[in-house]
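SAMPLE LOG
Freezer: B-3
Tube label: C17
Construct: single chain, 130 aa
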Amino acid sequence: MKKGLMKDLARDIIALGGIPFFAIVIVRIIILDTLVYLSQFLIAGSLFFIATFFFRNNFYSGLSLIALVFTSIVYNDLRYTIFGGFVYLLLLVSLFYLKYDKKKIIWGVFFGVISAISSYFAVDFIFKNI
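STRUCTURE (predicted):
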């Protein structure tokens, strides 16, 4: 029974890296009415989806990292960032615990980082030069 509970908990944590959760985060950013942050989310998400299509990386490890990075920027609160970072680490542990492909998890993290950085600097450059 304990092992079944652990698997259920791991799957619940992994769900935080899924499309429905990412959509909820985007809706929250829309409500804040900040075009810069919304642009960062959408560009990073699009870049990550393209990378996932071509390279078959782990979707959850990258998309949740993008959500963590940009919600941390939006909320600008150290407590939130620490909590979000802890939950993200639990997500990675859950992926390994449920025996997802390790290489795909690492590639997902890599493409999540690349997408977030690219989006951040692209949007920063665009909004500074408008």
